[in-house]
Design goal:
Elements lengths: L12 E2 L6 E2 L4 E4 L2 E4 H8 L8 H7 L5 H5 L3 H21 L3 H26 L12 H38 L3 H33 L1
Antiparallel strand pairs: 1-2, 3-4
Helix pairs in contact: 4-5, 6-7
């Protein structure tokens, strides 16, 4: 592989901004990260806008808004959708205590992640607008598959809601035993989902390594 700017020179690194291979002459090392001179020059001449740290902090209490204020729309939109999707899922599954802790953790993540991105921007470094999901890949290759996953998940949630609101209510009525059964089923479902998701991720990482 040769340098993207000099075809007769060997590659000494890959630009972390544009992904181009660069030779020793084109390589610029900033805080341990490799950049090409073109990206560094573009960043230096890029018009900068003043960002208010206080406003960014307040917006970050709604996960995603702080990132969008910084110009990180891909990461911000995904975080916002994940936030409201989690609240919707909590309402469907009737999750209170553990769901509240998860929401609080998501808000803290939003605050500190936006702060780190803001610091990078202030230092003249690139804050990568990387989402949690590669949406472009989904659109190009796996759109129908994930739409199918979404429809299956929606159907499962609908059946689960019928079970909790109708079937158990007819069996136990509005009694203490009914609420006890609801808590037992919620705990069992969350446990199975957490264990299954964890095993799937561990198995995937094991295959990749």
């Amino acid at each position: 592989m040769n340098c993207a700017y000099h075809n007769d020179r060997e590659v000494q690194g890959v630009c972390s901004s544009c992904g181009r291979p660069v030779c020793e002459e084109c390589l610029v090392n900033l805080n341990g990260q490799v950049h090409c001179k073109t990206c560094v020059s573009a960043q230096m001449h890029k018009p900068r806008r003043d960002l208010n740290g206080g406003l960014r902090f307040l917006l970050s209490f709604c996960p995603g808004l702080g990132h969008m204020y910084l110009g990180l729309f891909n990461r911000g939109v995904q975080l916002l959708v994940f936030f409201f999707g989690t609240i919707t899922l909590m309402n469907l599954l009737r999750i209170d205590t553990f769901g509240g802790l998860f929401i609080a953790g998501l808000v803290f993540f939003s605050i500190f992640d936006a702060r780190e991105a803001h610091l990078r921007i202030q230092q003249g470094l690139e804050a990568e607008d990387r989402g949690f999901v590669d949406v472009k890949t989904w659109r190009l290759e796996f759109s129908s598959r994930y739409i199918g996953y979404g429809l299956v998940a929606l159907g499962v949630l609908a059946m689960y809601r019928i079970l909790m609101d109708d079937v158990l209510a007819m069996m136990f009525g509005n009694s203490a035993q009914y609420y006890h059964m609801v808590n037992v089923i919620n705990g069992a479902v969350l446990g199975v989902l957490a264990i299954g998701g964890g095993l799937w991720l561990l198995g995937k990482n094991f295959k990749d390594s």
